[in-house]
Amino acid sequence: MRKEVKQAIGGLIMVSPSFVLLLVIVVIPIVQSFVTSLSNGEGGYDLSRYQFLFTDKGMRSNILFTLKVTVVSCALVLLVSYSLALYMRFSSGKLVDWIRKTYMIPLFIPGVIATYGLMNLLGNHGWLARLLLPLGMTLPRLIFDEKGIVIANIWFNIPFATMLLSSALTGIPASIIESARDTGAGKLRIFLRFIFPLSYKTFLVALTFVFMGVIGSFTAPFLLGPNAPQMLGVSMQQVFGVFQEREQAAAMAFFTFLLCSVLGYFYIRSMAGEEAANR
Amino acid sequence: MVRLKKSLTALSALTLTVAALSACGSKNDANANAAASDSSSNSPSSSASSSPSVSSSSAEPVQFSFYFTGSQNVKDLWDTLIPMFEKQNDKVKVKEVYIPSGAGAEPTYDRILAAKKAGKGSGDIDLYEDGINVVAQGTKDDVWAALDTSGIPNLANIDPKTMADVSNMAVPYRSSAVVLAYDSAKVSAPPKTLDELLDWIKQNPGKFAYNDPSTGGSGSSFVTTVLYDGLPEDDIHNSDPAVMAKWDAGFSKLKELNKFVYGKGIYPKKNQGTLDLLANGEVEIIPAWSDMVLQQLGEKLLPDTVKMQQITPGFNGGPTYLMVNKLSDKQDAVKQFLDFVLSPEAQEVIVTKMNGFPGIELSNMSQAMQDKFKGVSEGFRTFNIGDLGTEINKRWQSDVAAQ
Question: From residue A207, how far is each of A84, A150, A158, A193, B1 by CA, in Å?
Answer without folding.
Answer: 15, 15, 11, 20, 40
